[in-house]
Amino acid sequence: MTHGEGRSSGDQGQWRREPIAVVGIGCRLPGGVRSATDFWNLLDEGRDAIVDIPEDRWSRERYYEPERTPGKSRVQRGGFLTDPIDEFDAAFFGISPIEANSMDPQQRLLLEVAWESIEDAGLRAEDLEGSTTSVFTGGFTLDYGQMQFSPNPAEAPTVAAHTATGVVMTMLSNRISHAFDLLGPSMSVDTACSSSLVAIHLACQSIWNGESELALAGGVNLMLSPNFTVAASTGGFLSPTSTSRAFDAAANGYVRGEGAALVVLKPLARALADGDHVYATVLGTGVSQDGRTNGITVPNGESQRLAIESALASAHVSPASIDYVEAHGTGTPVGDPIEANALGVAYRGERAADRPLLIGSAKTNLGHLEAAAGVVGFIKSVLALAHRHVPRHLNLENLNSEIDLDDLRLRITTSPADLPVDGPIRAGVNSFGFGGTNAHVILESAPAPTDPEASPTTPDGSRRDGIAAILPLAARGDAALAALAGRYSDLVAAEDGTTALVRALAHRRSAHRQARLAVVTGSVAETVEALAAAAADMPHERVHTGTALDDARPLAFVYTGMGPQWWGMARGLLQHNSVFRAAVQECNAAITPRIGFSLVAELLADQQSSRMHESVVAQITNFAVQYGLTRLWESFGVRPDLIVGHSAGEVAAALAAGALSFDDAITVIVHRSRLQHLASGEGRLLAVALSEAEAGKIPEVADGTVELAAINSPDSVALVGSVSALEAIAARLEAYDVFARLVPGDVPYHSRGMDPLEAEVRSSLESLAPGCPRTPLYSTVTGARVAEDGSQPHDAEYWWRNIRRPVLFGAAADAMLADGAVTFVEIGPTAVLGRSIGETAAARAATAASVTSLRRDGDDAQSFAAALAQLWVRGIDVDWTPLAPRSAARALPGYPWQRARYWSEGESGRRDRLAKTVEPYLGNRTEGALPAWRRLLDGTAPRSLADHVVHGATLFPGAGFIEIAAEVARDEYDATSCTLVDVTFEAALLHRGGTYLVDTSLDAATGRITIHGRLPEASRWVRHASATLQPAPSVGTRIDVGVDPALDAVDQVELYRAFDRAGFSYGPSFQLLHDVRIGDGAATARIREVAEEPVADRAPILEPSVLDAAFQLLLPLALRRDETARLLPVGADRVVIHERPQGPLIVRATAHPDAGDPTRIAGDVTIATEDGRVVVEVEGFTVLVQSDATAPQRVGTDWVYEQTWEPQPADDGERRAATGTWLLLADDTGTAARLAERLTAAGGTPVLVPAGSVSDGAVPPGDRTALSDLLDRTVPGEGLRGIVHLWSLDRDHTSPADSLRWTAHDAVLSIVHLAAELDQREIAAPTYVVTAGAQPIGGAMSDRGLVQSSILGVGRVLHHELKGLESRLVDLDPEDVDGSIALLADELAISGSEEDQVAFRGGERLVARLYPSTRSGGRIPARMRADGAYLVTGGLGALGRLVLVSLAERGAGHVVVTSRSGLPPREEWDSLTDPTQRDAVRTVRAAEAAGASVHVVAVDVTDATALGAVLDLLLESGVPPLRGVIHSAGAVEDQILVRMTEEQVDRVVRPKVLGAWALHEATAGAPLDFFALFSSISAVIPSPGQGNYAAGNAFLDSLAHYRRARNLPGLSINWGPWDAGMIASLGLRELYGQRGIDLIEPETGMTLLGELLGSSEVQQGVVSAHWPTVVTNYALTPVLVAHLGRGDDDGGGDDGSVLDRLHAATPAERPSIAADGVRHTVSQVLRMAEEHIPDEEPLGRLGVDSMLATELRIRLEQHFGTAPTIAFLLDGATTVAGIGAELLHALDMTSHDAEVDDLAALLADLNDDAVAALLTGAETTDPTAEAPVD
Description:
PKS_DH; PKS_KR; Malonyl-Coenzyme A Acyl Carrier Protein, domain 2; Carrier domain-containing protein; 8 domains; alpha/beta; phosphopantetheine; PKS_Beta-ketoAc_synthase_dom
């Protein structure tokens, strides 16, 4: 059966495309695999190449987490290469170091593997240049490209000129094509894991389609960074056990592997014709796609089957003919059964049950090489076919239950399996991409090799056809060449012979590389010795070395003349070389009939019978030898570029050049030798080392007795004459030490002794038919090049001159040198002319090499081999086929790459990848304008931190923050000693696995160090700690280390048990105290020496466990006060590090006396050496004694709000008939009149009452009596249908200054009186307060709108105090009042609406809502000017004092404070006794201490004239111009509207309105940066009892908009209640908390003030509230905030609240429901997707700080009706699961929390003084009211 024929009747069809041969393999794979042989050995031995992730790839400690964690992988092992992947032999490929640096190592690796595959194929890369060889490579990941771009934006990317070509996928293939000058298709393929098998498919198609004559195909995959490993692990693709268990029940993912492999493909017929070694053949290929599956990575068994069937159809073979299939076999529980079933369905067919299809996967050996996986399986299958043996499939213990091998007719090769020994065998290869691209290839075993041996070889392989075997080695440089020689030395020694080596030379075809070495082989020992010498760079007679020249040609053949002949010349070649012998025999056949003797016999005669001394024999045999050598050189591919012959040698030279035919050459040499022989005995030749001129001076030459026979070089001639004359000359020359030697022979060549022969010479040669030289020919008759046009024929005339004239060899050689000849080969029996050539070259300052074909003193086999070697190492191409015909051979040593490191990566990226850390706790510096550092707390962190467990959580110790600060001093200032002051621990850092980012920054100007942290996926940074860095004291201190007898010894074990009971469950690394002694307020102990953890370049300065041990000594002193308290360290006043503590240490602790604050305990700690030298001092180390009762708990979630207006059509509202009496408090602009018309038309009876004097029939707005009389007259018995207040619309014709009485007085009183009268009459009629342009919608505010504004505030309160009025604010469109009347009329008809504020704009109905502010105006805190002044009204009130100090701290140079009463003179300040005044003085002094000049001014800010005068006076006194105004003055006098008096209105509203307007006017010319008005949240959110206050603040709000509309600075802040003033003094926090409102802490408020002053906002509300509670406390829910009261969803989606689901659930179900609800709540707080919040992840690691814990607590209470304490959330089991468990424990499922009762119930809990103060308004609960100071 011939190759390619089917094996069975089942093979499909009769025709099949020509198989494609696999002739070369190059691979670098895990397990140290560097060749196909290595790979087979690994497979055959059943080795597992999976190893730990190398340290130079990435840090396992940093990137490993056993659980699936964002940013981490679950694997620690993989299939990695053993060779460095950052090294490359760039010079070999002619690539500059700078370009190599930018090249993806995958490109580099492929270049080397491509070379190795070409070598393995026995090809020369040079022979492929310019051919249509194609390259198809698979690629997938591009790690190196990612490395070029630093993750640190401050670090310049490592992008260079060659990066663009160095990191892209296309260059994986294109780089090979470029390097080897391949012109066929070049394509990089990315189909993920099937890439390389798809590449092979494309390569085969390219060959079959005729696009390519040869193809390189394969793939590459390198794992340079952890990124894709992390991604694949996160995606669940990778095995967490790092074990490839293909088809096993325990399969849990694949193991990543890396490497590169290429195969060389060519048509089988051509491969066989070329004598290539064929591993196997490709019969067919197929590719398919999965299409849409359940997921893009979910395989499709049907599509896999289609790929297999496509490949079988392409191969025209039956499924049953396949013996083995290399499976994809990734080892996934989903993919394995799908593949196995697809294989079974596709291949089962007619397969007999007793002949199951063998399957296996190399992934169990190497891992999954992804883009290179397909070619790896391909090569494994090729080798299995070649060896007819399938290696063992590893790691299969229990078959996946979804795979039925018997039914599928499959057998997994869990033990090695032999394949049939006879006939073709076949295999299939599977490969699937995780994006759905499937590939399959059908292979068949190679045809049986044929033996190409045709010429004899010695048994040991050292000679072939009479020529010594030559081992030619080439490399890019000498070092590589020596290494290569060493490898071959080992090979020859191992083979115990050179036969395999010789046979393998056909497969080597040593390529053209500059550094060359050729060894003329001998015996095994001789060859090993020679190679070893070459490896050691030692000379050896068999070793020829050289540097191949690009200009080694022109090559000249030099045919020697008479003289070098000898009796045994060329005998070895004649006897043993077929080419040489055939040429000589050809001569013999032509010559013998003419001369009567056999030249072969003469060449074989022994020395005694040899006639070589006879001219006729010598010339003829010399010619035959030269002819034979010419043919022998030709057989090795060596042909001359130039030719010259010396004397008789010109005959063979003319024949070689084409100037004579073979027959003519025979004619010439026969007659020349015959005739010259006639002159035998007439003289001889003498070779002398003289120039022509010097020879001419010899007397015998000068007188003609002796002639010049030849001029061989500038320093070498031959003389001819009688023997006696020549001997005399020789004797004289030798006396002068001049070389002179008689030439063998007795014929006087080239002298007058030839003259008698002329006639016969001419007649004998007259029949010649010379031709034109085909190769440049140089004449030694003329000393010049022979014309190529035939004008200088080699006829009888020429040959007579050849015989008679001197030989001008020197001139001819010079002409050849002039024409560029650099290499000369002597064609003759031995070396004779090399010296002359050298001398001629030297004379013209040229260099030339001369090689002789044979040497008299050498063996012909060795001599000619040496000549071949010398030419080749010089750079002359040699065809080694005669010595090594192409045949199958074992693999040869690979090229010894001379690699150097080439790597490009940003420093920060390198540090992250390798987890290289400078400082152990501080980490590495990050680039930026300010000094900053980052440390990742992950697997690279000190493992001892896991032992710091406090209250059930693994906390980063406070001592660790101190160490971080100390390391700042070292890294920034090179200081190992320092002082840290104001050390503050602000938020706990939970450390329990995973990764946590710790960023540290230093303000070099102030020395302030701040430490922040967050989880990588969290968006919020948490500030954990801060400290101020100062120098350490220059002088150290000492302490007495003696034992204080007053202290009691404490057992160490019992001590740590007590700590554990208190919540401090320290592990071994933090149990360092021993010899502990404790007394009253003091304690001492010793600290055990700790072993260093080498986690960074540097060791810690102050090991945290050591300092923490010192802090631990304070715990017993604190616990003596309260054994049940939770102790949380909050900081230290001062820490001094004198030096790095080392060795055994002593620590002393002293507790500070009780300062009266039960929530804090402080103490000092000193650490000293055993001799008393203090190394660390800590002063004022403070812990917080926390209990649920003392922990303030915020109820709100946001701080800043803003009012927006949103459309709400009235179309769907219910309408009520207009019939009845309408009281219209009418304007005089016509609006009321037109409204009346509409009401009348609708059936109503409007009564219009204008504002004005009673005498005019009108009602004065502030006259309650007149209003009462009006109502008595107009209200019918059945009551009113409605009341419409339109009096505000009259305010459109006067300026604000003229109309402020209305704003500050009449407007408010008109509502107050109306409310009282309606209430008194029990009239409950819908009431509408109408304005036009009073609402600042879109930022617009006119004079008219500003004047109307106060009525908005009181109108909002009216809605809530008198529910029966259903009052509503209606703001008409100021740009279209007329058009608004129709909308107003419709609004009056709407019933049942909850809206209390409506506005019309552009024909659209708008309603008001309150939302958390977007803060679009920015949050940059304002900084004050040192050269500016700032005015604060009410500056000595509770809030004003905070503002005063804050402005000073923010840089204000001058602050002007207004107060109604001011302060006494400064000289009286120290003697003041009034507490309020003393507080004011302290505040002024604090502001001045902060750098401000404070000016306290007593002035009534409502008096514009007085205020202006004061400001002018200040300017005159040198106070800089005002840069900012803060109007915080005000008063509160709460009263419900029906009881409010005119005086109460004036006392509250006038200061707000008139004072603000006075400030507006007085500062009109000032260059203000801000104009801030302290309003109240009650102006926005109705507050019953504060109608007057709301009215005044509403004006402030509008004034801000009014100013901003005129391009003036304006800001109104609607403050909520502050924890200041009487609210603070009365302890009303709990009261407000029960109402759902947080008090504004002074620090928080001033921070927000700074942000708002620096923003472009106009009006912002500042309040923190639990809106459901707030809304509950309203009898009538304000629709403005009702949506806030509904809160977020309860975490349960659409299937009921979490409480409902908990009620309905079984006890077993409740934990998961609770955890889901908690997770949903946490996701809302963190704005983080729920899937990123594992049940067991500590929330502190997710970024939950104290503020977010507060918000979390609020939301948990909203959803669950109960919530853990803040302390629990921060310090307890703060995981989702832990919180869920806590809630279930605390939750009473059968009862409900009581609703919060009304305000009266809350007030019942207050003492009498507090109640009286609240009700009488002696001091306001609003912070903007000014407190009296006199």
